[in-house]
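so my prof wants the structure for this chain in the tokens format not the other one, which i didnt know existed until like an hour ago. anyway here's the sequence
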Amino acid sequence: MATHADTAGVHTTPAQHEAAQSALAHHFDNMEQQKAATTLGMWLFLVQEVMFFGGLFLVYAIYRALYPQSWAAGSSHLNWVLGGFNTVVLICSSLTMALAVWAAQAGRPRKTQVLFLVLTAVLGLTFLGVKAFEYADKYQDGLIPFAGWFSPTDPETRELFTTHGATLQNVQMFYWIYFAMTGLHALHMIIGIAIIIPIIWAAWRERYSPEYYAPVELFGLYWHFVDIVWIFLFPLLYLLGAHLAAGH
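here's what i got, hopefully its the right format
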């Protein structure tokens, strides 16, 4: 079968070459120019996302400095084991995503590309499932911080939230920030799952090759960014009050 060679010496099939050419937008001269422009666009988007999350991290830092005892008390009621499990899940998803990018770049068979992309999606859904369980648990415990809803049902929890210098009002503020930060992160995960589905479908149709793999690579940047955000959220939210939960 006739093949086309890219600059790295990896061969693509005529069908893959045709798919790559059909993906070239009319306002670009070649695939290299298109890739440079789309990569720049993705990095600009991620910079905007850094500033967006940065505002929340700033609010977190200010209130933590003002009310350290309440912050620790609120954090002590989070399940750091589930948070740690989700951290491992996302680290594994970053690995499978990187392998998916490699598979597309190296011209690996479509089954290999699809396998790593599907594994990434499954790990993302696992993360969201654990977060849904955590949110349901906080709802059962009366820790959803909307007006009139924040009423810890467990006497020991209520006592913890009003000792060690903590106040119920300031612990409620911790949960406002907890749900804002983790909820926004979960929303990015949901968007990521929605985006990866058509990428998986395109990989199954052998759209990606060493000549054209930009969608996989650019989505990989987005996915790694979301994972990195969680790497910061986990210790800041879950480990802050671990000593109180241990009774020290």
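also thought this was worth mentioning. The chain has nine helices and two strands.
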